[in-house]
Specification:
- By secondary structure, the chain is an alpha+beta fold.
- The protein has 2 domains: about 5-280, Porin, CATH 2.40.160.60; about 420-500, Serine Threonine Protein Phosphatase 5, Tetratricopeptide repeat (Alpha Horseshoe).
- It has helices at about 5-10, 30, 45-50, 290-305, 310-325, 330-345, 350-360, 360-375, 380-390, 395-410, 420-440, 440-455, 460-470, 475-490, 495-500, and strands spanning about 60-70, 75-85, 90-105, 110-130, 135-150, 155-170, 175-190, 195-205, 210-215, 220-230, 235-240, 245-250, 255-265, 270-280.
- The chain has a 14-stranded antiparallel β-barrel with strand order 1-2-3-4-5-6-7-8-9-10-11-12-13-14.
- α6 crosses α10, α11 runs antiparallel to α12 and α11 (about 420-440) packs parallel to α13.
- The chain is elongated.
Length: about 500
């Protein structure tokens, strides 16, 4: 029977169970942080620590690590990962080997019958995706096969790991979860098993350069690690119940990484780990950030869906872009989509109502203008267009709901007298302009005229009255600009041209 205890004498595991090869640690970056990677990992080594990390994989990556450990024990790690073509995330492949030589065999009579070696070999394949159920949630799995041999005996085990990561919350905190061996079976001459275990982790960015991470497993294994980034140079340190670790890392020529870690074993002392990595370059000779491309694609989809009046899907696409890259769209679009989500939450549209607001109708276009004005933080114009939308057909309950919802989010009143078709609403505002100017309420008159122009920017009469309102208020500069717009729309208006000449406004 293959003895798990034999491998434990050399590996850095946390128990006498089968599968110590999965506790040695892969890639010197993670080892420099004492293996506290459940929430922090998002590179090729994600398949080893938490397959959900593949959800934020930034392009194709390859990694190698070779470690000469204790008493002739050697550990080798090779990993490859690349992005999916159609959705955020990717897949990866890893190969692990843990071997020891120099064992002395004895027969039943306690006679030396020669030496033997011990070997563990694991192959794993997994996938991880971003935006699973929630925009900020990554989920993944790894299927693995472990083969062990001790002298003439051998066995084979299979297991399935699942994992999740959520965040970063407020661009700082990420939490992670991994269940090891959620499913497992065994073949061969052994009573050992790959038993289930749960790992929980958190990673927090302190400022822009320092990351702290912690892991805790159901095997009572606690790990704490830190990483400090200085452009292409990294410093790392960590500790666990068996000791501490520290290391450094370098990125050179954009594509190559060299990571070094020193890891302490409670019995055999310190030993080095060295890993090399490569990020494949694109056609432009630069390492591609595939996740940034995915984020931009979702952002573009969100803007296109906004134009098509598919508001709920636009919010969802933007949230997906933000889940991949918090910088997508910048602060301006982040605020606009926050406001869009607020009006949709107030509206609570049913499926048929969503389709009504997507139709190529005058009402839908006016509602879109209202929404865009609200996104531009112009509540007065937003409520104006909402009144006009309902005014097109007062029997349409969807736009009645829309007007009331817009009033609620802007804090402005619903004015039944403003629920008019666009031509009638323009006429009302133009009459109000005249009344306000005669009453010397110039500010109100100017606002009423601007409302008319918001509804119809090509209305020459509105431009003339706006010019007159400005002129009456003593503002010749804005009056001149308004009169010039009126002349552009009606170059035959000689009376206006003569008036401007008399007032010296034709220069």
């Amino acid at each position: 029977m293959v003895s798990a205890a034999f491998s434990f004498a050399f590996a850095e595991g946390t128990g006498h169970l089968a599968g110590e090869i999965y506790t040695v640690g892969a890639a010197a970056r993670g080892l420099g942080m004492a293996g506290a990677q459940t929430a922090a990992v998002n590179d090729v080594s994600s398949l080893y620590y938490n397959p959900a990390g593949l959800g934020l994989l930034q392009g194709r990556q390859f990694s190698l690590m070779q470690a000469s450990m204790y008493e002739g024990t050697a550990f080798n790690y090779m990993g490859y990962a690349q992005n999916s073509k159609k959705r955020p995330g990717g897949w990866g492949l890893e190969i692990l080997r843990l071997g020891a030589t120099g064992g002395k065999g004895r027969d039943l009579n306690n006679q030396d019958n020669g030496g033997f070696g011990y070997n563990e070999m694991s192959i794993g394949f997994g996938m991880g995706y971003r935006g699973v159920l929630l925009p900020d949630l990554s989920a993944g799995f790894k299927a693995k096969q472990l083969k062990r041999s001790l002298g003439p005996s051998s066995d084979s085990m299979m297991g399935l790991d699942i994992g999740a990561q959520y965040g970063p919350i407020q661009d700082k905190l990420t939490v992670g979860f991994t269940m090891l061996n959620a499913f497992a079976n065994v073949k061969g001459d052994t009573s050992d098993r790959l038993l289930p275990a749960v790992k929980l982790g958190a990673a927090y960015k302190v400022g822009g350069a320092l990351t702290v991470a912690a892991d805790f497993s159901s095997l009572s294994d606690f790990r704490f690690g830190t990483e400090y980034a200085l452009q292409n140079f990294f410093l790392r340190a960590g500790m666990q119940q068996f000791g501490f670790s520290f290391g450094t890392g370098f990125v050179f020529r954009q594509a190559y990484t060299l990571d070094i870690a020193m890891v302490q074993h409670p019995t055999f002392g310190m030993s080095p780990r060295i890993s090399l990595g490569y990020k494949f370059q694109g056609k432009n000779g630069k390492t591609g950030n595939k996740m940034e491309a995915f984020a931009n694609e979702y952002l573009n989809n969100a803007l296109l869906e906004l134009q098509k009046r598919d508001y709920a899907q636009a919010v969802k696409s933007f949230q997906q872009a933000q889940g991949i890259n918090k910088a997508a769209g910048g602060a301006e679009w982040r605020e606009k989509f926050r406001r869009l989500a607020a009006i949709l939450a107030k509206l609570e549209l049913q499926a048929d109502e969503v389709e009504i607001m997507k139709q190529p109708t005058a009402q839908a276009a006016l509602a879109q203008a209202s929404i865009m004005s609200f996104l531009e933080e112009d509540p007065q114009k937003a409520i104006l267009f909402a009144h006009a939308a309902l005014g097109q057909d007062v029997r349409n309950a969807v736009y009645n709901k829309f007007l009331r919802s817009m009033a609620a989010v802007t804090g402005l009143e619903v004015r039944r007298e403003d629920v008019l078709p666009v031509p009638a609403l323009i006429s009302q505002r133009l009459k109000q302009t005249v009344d306000f100017v005669f009453a010397q309420k110039f500010e109100q008159g100017i606002k009423a005229c601007k409302d008319a122009l918001a509804l119809d920017p090509q209305n020459g009469t509105a431009w003339m009255r706006l010019g007159s309102a400005y002129f009456a208020s003593g503002d010749k500069t804005n009056a001149t600009a308004a009169y010039k717009n009126a002349l552009q729309l009606d170059p035959t208006n000689e009376k206006l041209r003569q008036f401007m000449a008399q007032q010296g406004m034709d220069k």
